[in-house]
Write a structure and sequence with these properties.
With about 500 residues, the chain is α+β, with helices and mostly antiparallel strands. The chain has two domains: about 45-240 and about 400-490, Aminopeptidase (3-Layer(aba) Sandwich); about 240-390, Alpha-Beta Plaits (2-Layer Sandwich), CATH 3.30.70.360. It is built from 14 helices and 17 strands. It has helices at about 5-25, 45-55, 65-85, 85-90, 155-170, 195-205, 265-275, 285-295, 300-310, 310-320, 325-330, 370-380, 405-415, 470-490, and strands at about 90-95, 100-105, 115-120, 145, 145-150, 180-185, 215-220, 235-240, 240-250, 255, 335-345, 350, 355-360, 385-390, 420-425, 445-450, 465. The strands form four sheets. Strands 1, 2, 3, 6, 7, 8, 15 and 16 form an eight-stranded mixed beta sheet that branches. The chain has a four-stranded antiparallel beta sheet with strand order 11-13-9-14, with helices on one face. The chain is globular.
C-alpha cells in the first residue's frame, strides 16, 4: 500500500504537469490573418541594375572625412535624381549639411499625422586585406547567381533604393498619400549620424513636425535561427540598445622590475577586469524579451513551447540556456566587453599606470549611471578609477507594440509573408532612427530580408549581397506599407 506522502507527491506532480500542459496550449497564436493583396509587378531586373549602380559609388564613411567619399555622395545624389524622375517631380528634396537628403511628399490631409521612412547612404569600408576573399568585387555592383553583390546591398543601400523604387511606382500610378510622407537618408550613419540624421531631426523639430511613425533598417526575417520554431521569424525592432565605454585606470609606484612591490598597476587592473567579467549585469525575461517570447511560444513545438509558456516556473532555466549563446545573451542583459588594455612599455620597467576600456551595450531600462555603479561594485577596488568615455548613448525608448505603428508593420509583413511569425525584438546595434525618438510616437526597425545564421557575417563583412527575390520583396514591402498607413490611422 502506497504511503500517504508518496500519494501526495504524485498528486502534486500530476497537478503541476496538468498546469504546465494547459498553460502551453491555452495561449493561442498572436499572429493575425490578412487577405493577400494583389501582387505588385516589379521590374526586378531594372531595379537590380539601379541598385548595382548605387553600389558602385563608394560612399564610404571613414573615421575622418574623406574628399573621395564626399564626391561619391554627391554623385549618388545626381544618380538618384536621374534614376527616379517621377519621384523627383512629385517630392521636394532638400540637402541637410550638404550631404544628407530629406524628401517631403505632402499629404492630402494636413491634419493626418506624418510618417518617416529612413535609410542611409554611407557604407563601411572593406576590411584591408579581405578583398581577395570576396566572390565578387566589393564595389563592382555585380548581378549574378540571383544576387546583387557588393558593399551596401544589405547595409543600407538596399533599403534606400527600395524605398525610392516603391515611391516611384506609387507616383507613376497617381497615388496621393493622405498623410505627409518624409524620406530621410543620412550620410554618416556608420559614424553615429550626428551630421546627418540628427541634423534632419533637429530641422523637423524646428518646423514643428511630430511623426506618427518612423521606420528604419533593422531586424530581419530569420530562418532556422530559433530552436523549436519551424516558421521564419520576422522580428520588428521596437528598441535599440545604448552604449557606453568606461575607462578603467590603475596606478602604482613605478620602478625596476627587479624590485616589484606588492601591488602593480597591471596586476590590479587585471584583477579588476577578471572580477568585472565574472559579474555580468543581470538578465531579464521581461520587457521586450518577454513580449518576443510571448509571441513566439504559441508557434513553437515540443519542449521549447512548454518552457516558454511557463516562464513563471522555468524563467531561470530559460535565461540560463539563452545566455549560452552570445547572440541571445545580448537580448537579455546589458553586455560587458573588455576591448582594450594598455600598460607598460618595457619588459624590465614597472609602469606607473595601466588602462583598460570596457564597452557596455545597454538594455532598455538600464542606464549609464547604473553601469558605472555596477562596475565600481563588481571591481570592489577604490584604487581603480572609473571614467565614462565620450559618446555614451542611453538605450532608446521602447516603441509600443499595441500602437498603430507596430500594427501597420505587422499587417504589411503578414500580407506579403503569411508564412512568417511576427514578433517584437531588440536591436543590438545602433541606427540613425534613435535620433528621431524625441519627435515620434513610435520608432521601428525592420528589413524584410530573409537570412540564416550563416548570412549574418555578411553585415560589415565579406560577400555582402542581396537576392533578387528579397530585393523585389523589399520594394513590395515599402509600397504596401505606404498604402496600408491610411488603413491603420484613426479617423
Amino acid at each position: 500500500m502506497l504511503r500517504r506522502p508518496f500519494v501526495l507527491f504524485l498528486i502534486v506532480v500530476g497537478a503541476l504537469a496538468a498546469i504546465l500542459t494547459v498553460n502551453s496550449w491555452r495561449h493561442g497564436s498572436r499572429q493575425r490573418q490578412f487577405a493577400s493583396p494583389a501582387r505588385l509587378e516589379v521590374d526586378v531586373d531594372a531595379a537590380a541594375a539601379r541598385l548595382a549602380g548605387a553600389v558602385r559609388l563608394r560612399t564610404v564613411s571613414y573615421e575622418a572625412p574623406s574628399a573621395e567619399s564626399r564626391a561619391a555622395l554627391l554623385q549618388l545624389h545626381a544618380y538618384l535624381e536621374a534614376s527616379f524622375p517621377r519621384l523627383h517631380a512629385r517630392l521636394r528634396r532638400e540637402t541637410v549639411n550638404a550631404l544628407s537628403l530629406l524628401y517631403t511628399w505632402p499629404g492630402s490631409d494636413p491634419a493626418a499625422a506624418p510618417i518617416l521612412l529612413m535609410a542611409h547612404q554611407d557604407v563601411v569600408p572593406v576590411a584591408s586585406g579581405s578583398e581577395g576573399a570576396w566572390h565578387a568585387q566589393p564595389f563592382g555592383g555585380e548581378i549574378r547567381d540571383g544576387y546583387v553583390w557588393g558593399r551596401g546591398t544589405w547595409d543600407d543601400k538596399g533599403n534606400l533604393m527600395a524605398i525610392l523604387e516603391a515611391v516611384e511606382l506609387l507616383a507613376a500610378s497617381g497615388y496621393q498619400p493622405r498623410q505627409t510622407v518624409y524620406l530621410a537618408f543620412g550620410h554618416d550613419e556608420e559614424n553615429g549620424g550626428e551630421a546627418g540624421a540628427r541634423a534632419i531631426a533637429e530641422l523637423l523639430r524646428s518646423r514643428g513636425v511630430h511623426l506618427a511613425l518612423v521606420v528604419d533598417e533593422g531586424l530581419l526575417i530569420g530562418e532556422g535561427m530559433i530552436a523549436g520554431l519551424d516558421a521564419p521569424a520576422a522580428m520588428i525592432g521596437v528598441a535599440e540598445k545604448g552604449a557606453v565605454t568606461l575607462k578603467l585606470t590603475a596606478t602604482a609606484a613605478p620602478g625596476h622590475s627587479s624590485m616589484p612591490g606588492r601591488r602593480s598597476a597591471i596586476g590590479a587592473l587585471a584583477s579588476a577586469l577578471a572580477r568585472l567579467e565574472h559579474a555580468p549585469m543581470p538578465a531579464t525575461l521581461g520587457g521586450t524579451a518577454g513580449e518576443m517570447l510571448d509571441s513566439l511560444a504559441p508557434e513553437m513545438h515540443g519542449l521549447n513551447r512548454l518552457l516558454l509558456s511557463n516562464r513563471w516556473l522555468f524563467g531561470r532555466l530559460i535565461a540560463s540556456r539563452l545566455a549560452q549563446s552570445p547572440a541571445t545573451n545580448a537580448f537579455l542583459r546589458t553586455t560587458t566587453a573588455e576591448t582594450i588594455v594598455r600598460g607598460g612599455n618595457k619588459e624590465n620597467v614597472l609602469p606607473g599606470s595601466a588602462e583598460a576600456w570596457v564597452n557596455f551595450r545597454l538594455l532598455p531600462g538600464d542606464s549609464v549611471a547604473a553601469v558605472v555603479a555596477h562596475t565600481r561594485h563588481a571591481i570592489g577596488d577604490d584604487g581603480i578609477d572609473v571614467e565614462v568615455s565620450p559618446g555614451a548613448v542611453e538605450a532608446s525608448p521602447v516603441a509600443p507594440t499595441a500602437g498603430r505603428g507596430y500594427a501597420l508593420i505587422e499587417r504589411t509583413v503578414r500580407e506579403l509573408h503569411p508564412d512568417t511569425v511576427v514578433a517584437p525584438g531588440l536591436m543590438i546595434g545602433a541606427t540613425d532612427s534613435r535620433h528621431m525618438a524625441a519627435i515620434a510616437d513610435g520608432v521601428y526597425r525592420f528589413s524584410p530580408i530573409h537570412a540564416t545564421s550563416r548570412d549574418l557575417a555578411r553585415f560589415h563583412g565579406t560577400d555582402e549581397r542581396i537576392s533578387l527575390a528579397d530585393y523585389s520583396g523589399l520594394i513590395r514591402y515599402y509600397e504596401r506599407l505606404l498604402r496600408n498607413v491610411e488603413a491603420t490611422q484613426s479617423p
